[in-house]
Design brief:
The structure is a homodimer.
Chain A lengths: L11 H6 L5 E2 L2 H5 L16 E4 L3 H14 L3 E4 L16 E4 L6 E4 L4 E4 L5 H9 L3 E2 L12 H7 L6 H4 L6 E8 L4 E5 L11 H5 L7 E9 L1 E2 L5 E7 L2 H14 L4 E6 H11 L9 E7 L3 H17 L3 E5 L2 H12 L1 H6 L3 E4 L9 H15 L2 E7 L4 E8 L4 H20 L18 H20 L12
Parallel strand pairs in A: 2-4, 3-4
Antiparallel strand pairs in A: 1-2, 5-6, 6-10, 7-11, 8-9, 8-10, 12-14, 12-15, 13-14, 13-17, 16-18, 17-18
Helix pairs in contact in A: 8-10, 13-14
Chain lengths: ~450, ~450
């Protein structure tokens, strides 16, 4: 864990190439850059952190790293949940936290943002012009747009509005040899050359370091109507999700299981039904009369599956339930340490996934709380364990792998929106299969022949 | 032009590896596979055409081609406008015209289509379930979905609904060594591994041959209201486009200049204003009252810029004007041979682009008809010339390059939706710059080291 670095690279030329104060080597400060939110136990200790302020700074860092064969770990806000920003021993963390500028052009509906800007800041800058940047990870208030692009982040609105890549039109990226390249730009249509912008979206820092992104904005969302349905049975809730998806297109369709409902109720005392096996939080942002019609139809579907339904057209009242859903992870976290899954399946397999996870939970004797962006089949099972209990920790780790294997068997993915990072890397070969894995590796080798870009993450 | 092939590859093992009738070598039939709709004068003559019926057939073809170093040219419906499917001398054309199966899952809102299926057939299959596949190239009735994905095709709805890549969730692709790989799948969210699906979208057959695509569908579009505005001045029309885009999000925002209006009027006699310098065809697919409000506001904006406006909420009546817009290219084609441009600029540069093209037209003494997907800044200048007039043909060719150079100067792209193909390849380096070009070449070399995949196209 601690660094044992016989051939520590010479930082002097790097320090000289960077503005005053960019390079940090104070051990106490380095310690705070070892982990992201995944708290990867395998995280190393970096030799330095570069608090880069510009694309030029990043170029200087990468040129130096290429020359000295030093591993680079790009880092946005450190809110990642897969260990994609875990530091590596002897490596250098490139933090974009000082690069937060955002400009918006309301005519072309484009935002240009530096990678360290928070997702919430991009949303706010767009809102000043009556515009909207849709992707909304639950962590939107403290995650960076650079991290969002690097992981192709999702969120709650994706069921209707798609994921991060659907909004990325261009970027500046510093390649593994220190060259900065501009890809795409403020044009909705541009097919000149290979789709390299899209290749870098979701590449988790393994192909280059993104220093600017060009984002597509859309008109402001209408205030949504909200519906909360509590189901006596899990099967009733997953059947309702299918029936809703068959007929409608809500702007949010979220799920919490009984364990999560109780954890959230412990925190909020907002009167959630502790006996319910499943709860859906659903929104419609259609124009008024149409939202009313959608809510009426969803109510009919949910009650048909045995649910109690509460509906409100008051956005503030509705937001309380969305906040409750967003606080699910921290609420469950109070019950123990978490192994956080991100498995997704085709919607029709959602019920099988939930039943399979219940079986894993029973067999391994660990609690698995399930929250889900149910409308797009993307679930976040939270495996709860006591880290002081070695045997339980081992069983939790077993369950962690079994849930991913289950998702693969059901035609699903091991990660829908968090990224592979370092924590899910061991399961990637099973998911991709040898041919697709080899193709990934071929692209990686072509763009990062020295292997200095976020080594150990993703591939 | 005609093939002089000293070392003709041995077709016998390929014929043996393919089902009866797949391999075509009859010279008369080969002739019909030399060109796509771009009528590239540099098109060669293939040694054979493989009318593949399955992914396995494509694998067999590519394995044989890799062994014998034979160039492969993938071909969908042959409707491409950039010569991306021009045959090469001694090469083999891989036509997907027999692979047209489409299946739709209405619950997950997914279509799985073989590459030879027409775009219109995908739309029809989706419509059977009340669903919609938005991308709508003007050629949607006779272009293939495989070609759409290979070029990341656009269309008229993109101004509100985005381009082909926004709807591609996965694919099966045969790589340059003959291995078939499955990428992505029927999941709205999937970030496990690099975004290779998106890399193949828009790769114009230069990285592999797509044999199946997984497409995201959305609920059926509402019947649109239509508005036609004719402007006495070109500046009035481009100013209106900016004002509309600043405040609204129409589902269609198309432009025709005076030359095009007259060519279309010659064909249709529908009473278009032959004196107008610009005409916009605009649609709103918002719910009824909201569409009325949008149409009223757009009317106000257009009349404020001097336009005569005709509006209708009757979808059939509105469709006549969309048909008129779609027939612009064939109508102009009756006036002479065409060099078809596809330049796009940031919306704010649309006026400068139009004025610049008028100057090029005057300087080179060739007519340039301008149609445009104005709402996303994507224009199709049509350079009209008499191929029997060598001097005029040369001036048209000069103008062709000058229009692309102008677009680059204005921060735009040389191709918004048609692809680079073989006709625009010479301008790609100027557009991309040396670093982005080198990055393109590095990815190409990694995935197609023998250079057999559509050589001469794109890169």
């Amino acid at each position: 864990m601690t660094a044992d670095l016989p051939d520590l690279p010479d930082l002097a030329p790097l320090r000289a190439a960077l503005p005053e104060g960019v390079l940090v080597t104070d051990p106490a400060r380095l310690e705070t850059y070892r982990h992201d939110r995944a708290r990867d136990p395998g995280a190393g200790t970096p030799v330095a952190v570069a608090l880069v302020t510009s694309t030029d700074d990043v170029c200087a860092v990468v040129r130096w790293a290429a020359e000295h064969r030093v591993a680079l770990v790009p880092r946005g806000a450190g809110s990642g949940l897969s260990g994609g920003a875990s530091a590596v021993d002897g490596g250098l963390v490139v933090s974009t936290e000082r690069m937060r500028a955002i400009t918006v052009d309301p005519v072309t509906r484009i935002a240009v943002a530096q990678p360290g800007a928070f997702n919430a800041a991009v949303k706010a800058a767009a809102a000043e012009h009556g515009l909207w940047y849709p992707p909304d990870p639950s962590s939107y208030e403290f995650c960076s747009i650079g991290g969002n692009v690097a992981t192709n982040a999702g969120g709650l609105c994706c069921v209707k509005y798609g994921v991060t890549t659907d909004y990325v039109l261009g970027m500046t990226v510093v390649l593994a040899d220190g060259t900065a390249v501009s890809l795409g730009g403020p044009r909705l249509k541009d097919v000149a050359g290979l789709s390299l912008t899209k290749l870098f979206v979701g590449s988790e820092g393994t192909l280059g370091i993104i220093t600017e992104v060009v984002l597509r904005l859309v008109p402001a969302q209408r205030p949504p109507a909200t519906l909360v349905a509590t189901f006596p049975t899990l099967d009733g809730s997953t059947a309702a999700v299918l029936d809703i998806s068959r007929r409608l297109r809500p702007s949010m369709l979220e799920f919490m299981d009984r364990y999560t409902i109780n954890a959230v109720e412990d925190e909020t005392r907002m009167g959630l039904d502790r006996e319910a096996e499943g709860m859906l939080v659903i929104q419609s942002d259609e124009p008024e009369q149409h939202a009313d019609a959608e809510v009426a139809l969803i109510t009919e579907i949910c009650t048909g599956h045995g649910a109690e339904v509460f509906a409100t057209s008051d956005p503030g009242e509705g937001e309380q339930f969305v906040v409750a859903r967003r606080m699910a992870i921290p609420a469950v976290e109070k019950r123990g340490s978490l192994l956080l899954e991100d498995v997704g399946v085709p919607l029709t397999a959602l019920g099988d996934l939930c039943r399979g996870m219940a079986a894993i939970s029973a067999a391994r004797e660990v609690e698995i709380a399930v929250i889900a962006h149910a409308g797009d089949g993307n679930t976040h099972p939270l495996i709860v364990f006591d880290p002081a209990d070695a045997d339980q920790s081992a069983r939790a780790q077993q369950a962690y792998g079994e849930v991913m294997a289950l998702a693969i068997r059901l035609g699903g993915t091991i990660t829908g929106e968090h990224g592979v990072g370092r924590l899910k890397r061991d399961w990637l070969p099973d998911y991709l299969g040898p041919d697709a894995l080899a193709l990934n590796q071929r692209v990686k080798a072509a763009l990062d022949p020295l292997g200095i870009m976020n080594p150990g993450a993703l591939l």
